[in-house]
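Prompt: For my understanding, could you write out one protein's sequence and backbone structure tokens?
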Amino acid sequence: MLIRYPEEAPFHTPVFVVTHEKRDPWERPGGLACLVNDGIEHALDQAREAAGDRDVRIAGGGATILEHLNAGLVDEFSITLSPVLFAPAPACSTGWTRPGSRWSRSVRGRRRG
């Protein structure tokens, strides 16, 4: 399968992608993508090392976020929701299994009408 990506990476920061396949890092103008196939903890360790004193951001669908939350790897998070449903997918509000976690929630929005 041929995957086409822009000539210049859009993130301008190192990106660590959790995958099931072993692949070499992919460097291009604008950033480096490292494909990590030995777990979320290893990917997060690499991202933290690359970030230094900056924040590390985890992106993905509900299953990816829940995996990090349930493993106790998230200090703080925010969720941006779009009121569009494309296909069935795990919701971030279900499947939360980490006992004793306390998360606050802040909801802001503007009513359209």
User: Anything to note?
Assistant: The chain has a mean pLDDT of 76.
